[in-house]
């Protein structure tokens, strides 16, 4: 087999282990899951995990880092998709809510198992979370400065809006009554109310 083939096989095995870890951590929690649980879900030998990852904690870190960086990129893309604060907030909240509903299993792991990370990894994830919060807070501050939003506390408003999306991972189920898109639209309405978005004077004309 070529080196390329070997790398491809190794990458596939790492991906299977990461997906299996998501399943195990979501069902049993980090501390309730063993490396044998993870390799069993992946259909691999119990020793495979240490060939591709240093530890169970390393798996959680990789899952958490990838998920948080995806959220950061998504927020930045949503902000860039509109020219005004209101349009940007609508895009951010809709995308953030839909993503957390569709990916609720991964989101539950990366948001509710943070305490299981080692200090260095936990600090790295905390910094990414701060960047996500900073993007939203900057958006709200622009809206307040332009008069689009009427809310005196951008820090608290940003925390409330992010919490709405993150908490979806706790309760959303694929067979539930609402689709991700319905939740996204509803959360947009909640977000506009929270920030005190001023009505468009052109609306209804």
From TrEMBL:
Pfam families: TetR_C_24, TetR_N. Residues 34-53 bind DNA. InterPro entries: Homeodomain-like_sf, HTH-type_TetR-like_transc_reg, HTH_TetR, KstR2_TetR_C, Tet_transcr_reg_TetR-rel_C_sf. One of its GO terms (molecular function) is transcription cis-regulatory region binding. Keywords: DNA-binding. Residues 11-71 form the HTH tetR-type domain. It comes from the Bacteria. PANTHER family: HTH-TYPE TRANSCRIPTIONAL REGULATOR RUTR (PTHR30055), HTH-TYPE TRANSCRIPTIONAL REPRESSOR BDCR (PTHR30055:SF200). This is TetR/AcrR family transcriptional regulator.
